[in-house]
């Protein structure tokens, strides 16, 4: 038999290059899946619009002092919340791959195990980018504006994208732990509700009762919301509290994202190796 | 490919693997000479899939060693993965990708460039009679087509060894025969094949050597003919019209058969293992006719997996699966 010319590359550089090239192939595969199932994009686009409209027009009048100002405040939070909720895609996608036999195929190939996770998270990042675009347009319609500098606006989107990447890796781990698509469907959402609601996404921290206030002050979701608001030059409902995280939202948001990434990336890869070996 | 001058493509020594308290494998040795087919025969939960998963690096054994094309599955998994293609029980295809895209993806993951991967995909689709459906999502494929696509995926890198884990389980008879043809062609090309199956007929058709496995242990090995000789060829079964004739039928069967006849009063059925096939059948009917015994039904069965098990272990294959427990069965197979 003839052997096909395959190019196994040696060394760390070669391994890294292969990981990214394999990751690219898996990302292509996942995006083709989205293309063939456009209904997947519905919850990534329609759901955030629903949240914007519900909070802007149902709760808005009761929460802020001025509904117009509240809408300006709200968008920064909803951006972050949307990104957090989108991690459910990764949870379900990962559980789905595990449940079908496709992971066996991947594991029987001489490819990097991290590539499966990189391909999954990168593809989901692309879906989240689409969600952010739709949300921004929706925000413009209800009166939200980017009032800061161009650089700050770019930085705001960069923070959101970094957070989306972090959430995708957390989602990958949750999906790997779930065991089945049915479990993943609830596990993907349940924990995100308290984490996003006990924060400054919809309200100011100082209005919350004691323990919840402390949680909200140090919740990275709060820091991300406040950071995005200040970078977009949006209205803040109330001056920040004295907590360091509240005083330095962008710095705290970036530190949180990096710490979460450093913790969850290796955890997800380790869990993938373990789960796939069953 | 293989290092050294060995003509053994796959070798495993003392494989042990437990899932919790269940011993899925309890000291399995095997050897597959290059270019031959080893049929691994056994009921659900016997350890067939576990063996395949160890040889394809999907699972690490608790003890024992295994080599594929001269490479150690434990220390050189990447080289093993380049040498062995896997086609599993649950077709590992992405149902939203087309047949062509599925194979292209596998080619890319083997490190092929885009055009090589695309060309190889087309080549395999033609070989597996999937060209017409190449650009349809695999979701719309029949069970047989999915299996063929999955097998094509295992062959993308032209591996010298292929592991086929129950390639025809759940297929209709027509697709099964299609699959057998495809596997035969593979063997004609010189590929070494590890085939697991629950069907004796399948192992008989395709395998050079058969290994019977039960409770994680090898209980018999040999060619199909050797195994059949061991279990006494075929089974002659007849139903008499009057239960009073059963003792006579039993006597006749004892004379023509190669073993102790079994008689069931309730169904008026008598059966025995025979070595001489139709000769024994004709002789039995002739003698019963001489005594004017009315025979309602008569059949000559080729030995089944159950017969092999009955002969080798004294219990039926289904009992073996039931004994190993549903939970452990699930784990072993999952």
UniProtKB/TrEMBL annotation, chain A:
Keyword Transmembrane helix: yes
Any Gene Ontology biological process: response to antibiotic
InterPro entries: ABC2_TM, ABC2_TM_bact-type, ABC_2_transport, Nod_factor_ABC_transporter
Topology term for the membrane: Multi-pass membrane protein
Sequence intervals crossing the membrane: 40-61, 73-96, 117-142, 154-176, 188-205, 251-270
Keywords in alphabetical order: Antibiotic resistance, Cell membrane, Membrane, Transmembrane, Transmembrane helix, Transport
Subcellular location(s) of the protein: Cell membrane; Membrane
A GO-annotated cellular component: plasma membrane
Domain ABC transmembrane type-2: 39-275
Family affiliation: Belongs to the ABC-2 integral membrane protein family.
Protein name: Transport permease protein
Automatic annotation (TrEMBL), chain B:
TM region positions: none
Gene Ontology BP term (one): doxorubicin transport
Superkingdom field: Bacteria
Gene3D superfamilies: P-loop containing nucleotide triphosphate hydrolases
PANTHER family: ABC TRANSPORTER ATP-BINDING PROTEIN, DOXORUBICIN RESISTANCE ATP-BINDING PROTEIN DRRA
Membrane topology designation: Peripheral membrane protein
Protein name according to UniProt: Daunorubicin resistance protein DrrA family ABC transporter ATP-binding protein
Similarity section: Belongs to the ABC transporter superfamily. Drug exporter-1 (DrugE1) (TC 3.A.1.105) family.
Subcellular location: Cell membrane
Organism: Thermocrispum agreste
Keywords: Antibiotic resistance, ATP-binding, Cell membrane, Membrane, Nucleotide-binding, Translocase, Transport
Pfam families the UniProt entry points to: ABC_tran, DrrA1-3_C
Entries under NCBIfam families matching the protein: drrA (TIGR01188)
Recorded GO CC terms: plasma membrane
Matches recorded under InterPro entries: AAA+_ATPase, ABC_transporter-like_ATP-bd, ABC_transporter-like_CS, ABC_transporter_ATP-binding, DrrA, DrrA1/2-like_C, P-loop_NTPase
Domain ABC transporter, first and last residues per copy: 10-240
MF terms (GO), sorted A to Z: ATP binding; ATP hydrolysis activity
């Amino acid at each position: 038999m003839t052997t096909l010319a395959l190019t196994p590359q040696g060394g760390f550089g070669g391994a890294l290059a292969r990981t990214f090239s394999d990751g690219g192939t898996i990302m292509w595969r996942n995006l083709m899946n989205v293309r063939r199932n456009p209904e997947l994009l519905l919850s990534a686009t329609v759901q955030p619009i629903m949240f914007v409209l519900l909070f802007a027009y149902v709760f808005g009048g009761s929460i802020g002092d001025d509904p117009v100002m509240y809408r300006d405040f709200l968008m920064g939070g909803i951006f972050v919340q949307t990104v957090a909720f989108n991690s459910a895609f990764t949870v379900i996608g990962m559980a789905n791959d595990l449940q079908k036999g496709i992971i066996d195929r991947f594991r029987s190939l001489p490819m990097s195990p991290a590539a499966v996770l990189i391909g999954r998270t990168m593809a989901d990042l692309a879906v989240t980018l689409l969600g952010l675009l739709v949300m921004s347009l929706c925000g413009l319609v209800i009166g939200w504006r980017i009032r800061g500098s161009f650089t700050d606006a770019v930085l705001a989107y960069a923070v959101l994208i970094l957070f989306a990447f972090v959430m995708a890796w957390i989602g990958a781990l949750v999906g790997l732990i779930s065991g089945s698509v049915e479990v993943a469907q609830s596990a993907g959402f349940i924990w995100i509700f308290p984490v996003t609601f006990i924060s400054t996404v919809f309200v100011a921290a100082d209005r919350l009762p004691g323990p919840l206030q402390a949680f909200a002050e140090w919740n990275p979701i709060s820091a991300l919301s406040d950071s995005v608001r200040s970078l977009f030059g949006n209205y803040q409902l109330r001056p920040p509290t004295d907590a360091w995280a509240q005083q330095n939202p962008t710095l705290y948001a970036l530190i949180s994202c990096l710490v979460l990434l450093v913790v969850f990336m290796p955890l997800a890869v380790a869990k993938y190796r373990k789960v796939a070996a069953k | 490919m293989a290092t050294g001058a060995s003509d053994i493509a796959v070798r495993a020594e003392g494989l042990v693997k437990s899932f919790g308290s269940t011993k899925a494998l309890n000291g399995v040795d095997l050897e597959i000479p290059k270019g031959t087919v080893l049929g691994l025969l056994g009921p659900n939960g016997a350890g067939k899939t576990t063996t395949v998963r160890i040889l394809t690096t999907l699972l690490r054994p608790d003890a024992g060693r295994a080599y594929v094309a001269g490479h150690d599955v434990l220390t050189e998994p990447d080289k093993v993965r380049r040498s062995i293609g896997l086609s599993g029980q649950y077709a590992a295809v992405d149902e939203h990708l087309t047949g062509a895209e599925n194979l292209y993806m596998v080619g890319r993951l083997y490190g092929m460039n885009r055009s090589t991967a695309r060309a190889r995909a087309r080549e395999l689709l033609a070989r597996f009679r999937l060209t017409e459906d190449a650009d349809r999502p695999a979701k719309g494929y029949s069970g047989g087509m999915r299996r063929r696509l999955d097998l094509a995926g295992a062959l993308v890198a032209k591996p010298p060894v292929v592991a086929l884990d129950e390639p025809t389980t759940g297929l209709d008879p027509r697709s099964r025969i299609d699959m057998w043809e495809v596997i035969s062609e593979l063997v004609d090309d010189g590929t070494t094949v590890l085939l697991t199956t629950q069907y004796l007929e399948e192992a008989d058709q395709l395998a050079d050597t058969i290994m019977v496995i039960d409770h994680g242990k090898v209980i018999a090995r040999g060619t199909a003919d050797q195994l059949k000789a061991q279990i006494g060829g075929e089974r002659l079964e007849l139903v008499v019209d009057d239960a009073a004739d059963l003792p006579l039928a039993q006597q006749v069967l004892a004379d023509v058969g190669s073993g102790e006849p079994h008689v069931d009063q309730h169904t008026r059925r008598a059966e025995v293992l025979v070595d001489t096939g139709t000769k024994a059948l004709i002789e039995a009917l002739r003698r019963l006719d001489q005594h004017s015994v009315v025979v309602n039904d008569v059949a000559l069965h080729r030995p089944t997996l159950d017969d092999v098990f009955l002969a080798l272990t004294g219990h039926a294959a289904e009992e073996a699966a039931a004994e190993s427990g549903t939970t452990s069965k699930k784990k072993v197979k999952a």
